């Protein structure tokens, strides 16, 4: 009898142990899947030039009416022109239907013809009259009063929007397509070339370099961290042509933990931001770029693009701006390139 009880206990507790083992395994699998899913989401959270519009913002009002001025500045010219034409035609069509519906009398316009009333609305809205059609009566003159006032307001807003789009500061800063690891006084350094593409100089240019990487948090969720990277010269008083940014990879550098030139498991990325003042307009400008580790050439340097011609005139060949060449960095005791 006791032997049967012991067997029953063994089977019972054995099943419980198996169940607990399965629960632990299932929990570990779920945590791993959750971490992988979160990592996939966070991998997309990297500074890229053409991916920002692909982000879906849920629970945030992002219609054109919530921030109309910003939308007018950032939308493309084709979209801006299409929207302005649609609104212009829509307003004039609305007033033409209003003239027709209220029975307003307009001299020179055929009664009941929407085409004549539409073009009369266009002339009134733009405050341009040719002396052929004119409002008659209280209803027609009241509608004209409202339309003229709206036309003045809309024309002022559209003129301001067009001017703001043209006057919006745009930085014409060119970044090298790749970063390079070259030798600076016997020490490896990460180098990125930038250039000012405008004829006017950039004043008081400040450059920030940082390493963005994915770090697994205590709760199993990846967290994006940004680590500053010290530049040899982060402030440039005057940027007229091109300049090479240098970050020495020493023991204090965040890059000392990585092997540049190879893809990284933590999705590391070097991010650079440039701010300055345009000499011609006096406006502040901002430019940015990012480099994944596969976009870093190890043991290379940028080719020279500045040359002095006859008469002491400088020549900058931007056709070779992105070109690099191999460089002997340093050698170890065996004479192999390191």
UniProtKB/TrEMBL annotation:
Alphabetical list of SUPFAM superfamilies matching this protein: E set domains, Voltage-gated potassium channels
Inward rectifier potassium channel C-terminal domain sequence ranges: 173-326
Record organism: Brytella acorum
Primary localisation category: membrane
Keywords, ordered alphabetically: Ion channel, Ion transport, Membrane, Potassium, Potassium transport, Transmembrane, Transmembrane helix, Transport, Voltage-gated channel
Family matches, as PANTHER family: INWARD RECTIFIER POTASSIUM CHANNEL, INWARDLY RECTIFYING POTASSIUM CHANNEL 1, ISOFORM F
Name of the protein this chain belongs to: ATP-sensitive potassium channel protein
Compartment(s) where it occurs, according to its Swiss-Prot or TrEMBL record: Membrane
Protein topology in the membrane: Multi-pass membrane protein
GO molecular function: inward rectifier potassium channel activity
């Amino acid at each position: 009898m006791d032997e049967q009880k012991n067997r029953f206990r063994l089977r019972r507790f054995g099943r419980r142990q198996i169940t607990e083992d399965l629960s632990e395994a299932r929990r570990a699998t779920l945590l791993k899947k959750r971490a992988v899913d979160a990592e996939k989401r966070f991998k997309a959270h990297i500074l890229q030039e053409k991916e920002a519009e692909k982000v879906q913002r849920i629970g945030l009002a992002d219609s054109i009416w919530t921030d109309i001025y910003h939308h007018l500045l950032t939308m493309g010219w084709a979209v801006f022109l299409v929207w302005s034409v649609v609104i212009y035609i829509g307003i004039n069509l609305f007033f033409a239907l209003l003239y027709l519906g209220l029975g307003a009398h307009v001299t020179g316009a055929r009664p009941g013809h929407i085409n004549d009333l539409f073009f009369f609305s266009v002339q009134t809205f733009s405050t341009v009259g040719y002396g052929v059609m004119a409002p008659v009566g209280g209803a027609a003159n009241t509608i004209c009063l409202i339309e003229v006032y709206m036309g003045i307001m809309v024309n002022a807003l559209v003129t301001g929007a067009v001017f703001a789009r043209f006057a919006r500061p745009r930085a014409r800063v060119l970044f090298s397509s790749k970063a390079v690891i070259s030798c600076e006084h016997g020490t490896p350094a990460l180098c990125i070339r930038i250039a000012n593409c405008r004829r006017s100089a950039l004043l008081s240019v400040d450059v920030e370099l940082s390493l963005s990487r994915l770090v697994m948090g205590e709760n199993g969720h990846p967290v994006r961290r940004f680590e500053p990277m010290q530049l040899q010269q982060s402030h440039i008083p005057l940027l007229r042509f091109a300049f090479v940014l240098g970050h020495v990879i020493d023991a204090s550098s965040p890059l000392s933990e990585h092997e540049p030139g190879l893809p990284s498991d933590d999705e590391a990325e070097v991010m650079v931001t440039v701010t300055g003042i345009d000499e011609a307009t006096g406006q502040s400008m901002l430019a940015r770029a990012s480099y994944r580790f596969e976009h870093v050439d190890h043991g290379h340097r940028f080719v020279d693009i500045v040359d002095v011609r006859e008469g002491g005139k400088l020549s900058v060949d931007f056709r070779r701006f992105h070109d690099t060449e191999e460089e002997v960095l340093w050698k170890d005791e065996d004479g192999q390139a390191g």
